[in-house]
Design brief:
With 227 residues, the chain is an alpha/beta fold. It has six helices and nine strands; from the N terminus they run E-H-E-H-E-E-H-E-E-H-E-E-H-E-H. Helix content is 34%, strand content 22%. The mean pLDDT is 92.
Length: 227
């Protein structure tokens, strides 16, 4: 079984704090076999990670992808190297991602303040390949549990991700995957449901610090636009 973190952000995300190199080195140091780099609305971080691993002959699989900000919330598209446009309809984005050959995962579907799609769209589960039933950045676990129940109801595989925005928290969400250690095998195994989600919660102080930082950044951005 491979140990994989399927939801990690680098400083290529507007709210990411850590360099690609630090994230990859952290993943290797804690024994991960694969890590998905899914920055917000860009694939540049994933491309950097793939090149870094290749150039240094490192023993880890980088799953390239993107976390797309659709009109109704966030969608993970994995296995793609081209960006999808943000702010489009969720179902149109899902269709486009699938046409690109991407694996579609619904992240933190019931998180009120982090763009959970399932809060706004009842049939969102039917449009994806898998559900993130463990996200380490929940303060309480009820939304994770609800995501897991809904995934079971719709017959969708469950995965876990740290949703780390700082390298220190890579590996706080781990998906065990019954696959060979290569990109295609991992993506196919997720589609086939050969997954076991597990993990631990990101410390509340770290989550709170980043939330305050993000709120301040959004306020400053709005003030700048008005001026």
């Amino acid at each position: 079984m491979l140990k994989c973190d399927l939801h990690v952000h680098t400083n290529y995300s507007s709210d990411g704090e850590s360099r690609v190199e630090d994230i990859i080195n952290r993943a290797i140091s804690i024994g991960l076999d694969a890590v998905a780099i899914v920055d917000h609305d860009t694939v540049e971080g994933a491309a950097h990670a793939v090149e870094y691993v290749k150039a240094n002959n490192l023993d880890i699989v980088v799953i390239p992808g993107i976390e797309v900000s659709t009109k109704q919330g966030h969608l993970l598209v994995m296995g793609v190297t081209e960006a999808l446009p943000p702010k489009e309809d969720f179902f149109e984005t899902a269709k486009r991602g699938r046409e690109m050959g991407g694996l579609l995962i619904l992240p933190h579907p019931y998180h009120q303040f982090r763009h959970g799609v399932a809060i706004r769209i009842r049939n969102a589960f039917e449009a994806v390949d898998a559900i993130e039933s463990f996200n380490s950045r929940y303060i309480v676990g009820s939304a994770n549990k609800k995501a897991g129940r809904k995934a079971d109801f719709f017959g969708k595989p469950c995965v876990a991700g740290s949703d780390a925005h700082n390298y220190r928290y890579v590996g706080y969400g781990i998906t065990l995957i019954d696959a060979d250690k290569n990109l295609n095998s991992i993506l196919n195994a997720i589609r086939e449901g050969k997954t076991t989600p597990t993990g631990k919660m990101t410390p509340i102080r770290a989550y709170a610090r980043q939330s305050l930082k993000n709120t301040k950044r959004k306020i400053m951005r709005r003030v700048h636009k008005r001026n």
